[in-house]
Every structure is written in C-alpha cells, then in structure tokens.
Design goal:
Blueprint (H helix, E strand, L loop, with lengths): L13 H13 L6 H13 L4 E5 L2 H14 L10 E5 L4 H9 L3 E5 L10 H7 L4 E7 L8 H8 L5 E5 L7 E2 L2 E2 L6 E5 L12 E5 L2 H11 L10 E2 L3 E2 L4 H5 L13 H32 L5 E2 L11 E6 L7 H10 L23 E3 L4 H9 E5 L6 H12 L3
Parallel strand pairs: 2-3, 2-4, 3-14, 4-5, 5-8
Antiparallel strand pairs: 1-9, 6-7, 8-9, 10-11, 12-13, 13-15
Length: about 400
Amino acid sequence: MTKKYTLATTTWDHAEYDAMQKVIKSEMFTMGPKVFDFEKQFAKYFSKKYAIMVNSGSSANLIMIAALRYSQKYSLNEGDEVIVPAVSWSTTYMPLQQYNLKLKFVDIDLDTLNFNLSALEEAITDDTKAIFAVNLLGNPNNFDEIERIIGNRNILLLEDNCESMGAKFNGKLAGGFGLMGSFSSFFSHHISTMEGGIVITDDEELYHIMLSLRAHGWTRNLPDVNLVTGTKSKNNFEESFKFVLPGYNLRPLELSGAIGLEQLKKLPHIIEKRRSNALNFLEIVKDFDWLIPQKEIGESSWFGFSLVIHPESNITRDQLIAALQKFNIEYRPIVAGNFLKNPVIKFFDYAVAGNTQNADIIDSRGLFIGNHHFDLTVEFELLKKALLTIR
C-alpha cells in the first residue's frame, strides 16, 4: 500500500481509552468532576486563575465574546469596532457578527501569517474597542509589538489560540497574553478530546459570566457568592432553575474532560516532536525558492506546514496540488483564506483597513500540509519527491 502523508492522526493510546472506560463505569456522562479537574489542570498549565471547558473551540470564541457583552467592567456593545486579521477560521468572526459588533479587517504578514503589524497600527482609531489576535497555524503573534501599539489606550486584547496550543512568545505560553484566550481540542489539533474547547482568563467576573452562559444562563453552576448575581439564595430548587443571562448549552461531555486530563500530560512531548519536525521541514523547502514557508515568531507549536507560492513565481497552486495528490499528501487551504471573499460577508457590519493584498496571495496561492506528534522523515521524503516534480 502506498504511504499516505495525512493531515491529522490520533494522539490517543491506552491511557485515553482507560480513562473513557472509567467514565462509562461511573455512569456520569454529562459535565462532571473530570471536566472540572481538567479545567483546574489546564488553568495551572497555562498559569491562569481560571479555565472553562466547552464543547468546541468555536464555542470558546462565542462564550468569550458573549461574556464581554454582559461584563460590568469590559462591556462590548452593539456597533463597537473590533480589529481582526483577514485570514482566520470562520468562527473567529461569527461571534462578533452575532453580537452586532463591527469588524475591521487588517491584512496579514506574508511570512508569519499573523497580523501585518504596520497595518494593524494604522488601523487603530478612537473607535477601536478590541483587537482579536489570531495565532495562526501554531505561530504566536509578536505581543511586544501589539502591546506597544495599544499603549495606554483602552483597547481590549483577546486571543484566538485554537491552532496554537503550546506556542510561546518570550517564554510565555500563547493564549495567555490577552484578557481571555481560546483553545480547541478537536481531533486535528495539538491535543484531542473528541470535540472540545477551553477559555482561560485571570478575570473572576468574566469567569463567572461564562459559567452561567455555558449552561443556559442559569445560576446553578455559579459559586454561592459570585459576580453575576451577588449572593445566591439558599433555596436550591429555586437556584437550580433561575435564568439570569441569555445563555447557551455549550457544556462538554465528561468523557472529554477525562480524555483531556490524559492528553494534557502528553502536551510537552507533542510540542517537542512538532517543533523537531519543523526543523526538518524548513530544511527541505529552503531548496525551493518559489515557496514561502511560515516564519516562526517566538516558539511556534507548528499546527501544520504552510506552503505559499511566491507571487512572482510562474508556478500555480493547481500544479502544487497535483504534485501533492500524486504522492498521497493531504492538504487544505490556509484556514479560510481571505475571509472577505466568502459570500457570508454580506451579513457582516465590517470595514477594511487599507488593502488585504497578502491575504489575497494566501487565498489564491497558499495551502498547508499536516504536522504530527511523531517523526515525519518518511513523509518528508514524499514531500520532497512531490516538490521536485514541479517545474
């Protein structure tokens, strides 16, 4: 059988299956002690006071934005301007649209795939209320520069870190630079809990709001003394069915919490192997001057390996795709490409800061291939053979 270079593979072994069996035997399948323990361990790993687990990374972004609508300290109101990069996954943008916020799209850097920092600086106005930084394909943003750009202005910094668990900038883990940071633990991500997402923060009020929003907007899961309702009634029947916020049902399964506890133990090794693979990947692609690989900021956790065809090259993406297909190498667009090109944009209140010429290049001349938690020497041999066929 011909070797296949896949986009994603499982990181589970007997530990995850044993953990699932214990949950099955407990007959506690809904959100329970394993989820709460995972939240505690996740917050500790990322040096944050609070972590809240939800059913997906998409839901993590949703609950972050929703929490800001109901916060007394950090309120984001209808029509407020939020700066976003032009390249990201759809669910970076959707919660902003759903809460009637105005998105301002900023171009990305062709090398790093994150914010073009000069464009970001020019985009900020007195109307800017928040910057939603996306750490793309494992690569953290330059948060020193972003914090310099924000300066003393009252602008919230949020992080979509769904693709970059384990990445570091100046020795600090990505996801922890903003007021809140989101993560995904979907199958193809650094750790997998089936479906799953996490938000981390040091802000107690936001944490309490998210506890309520995650489960119907009720008070049941709030501490007795909390920053949403104050002091709860001692009437448990009443408090179990008191709805105080326009919430959702974003609760994770107990199975996901149990798996997450085992996966978190493996995260350092997973990141180590992905970073080791990246060194070998970069060694291969340096011989193909028509390709632009992603330039690392800080310590990337290398979600995948981007292949962007140089805009001055005569080689087309169709040629690259044909070569990858010939050697059984799976590929995907770089996230959602230039999101402005998607028809759904007609439903958004948005503006574009300057132009999105680099996002356009990513959209028409870029794709990415997979990275894994094991050695990819054999897979990289396929990649090199595929690239050598392109003339």
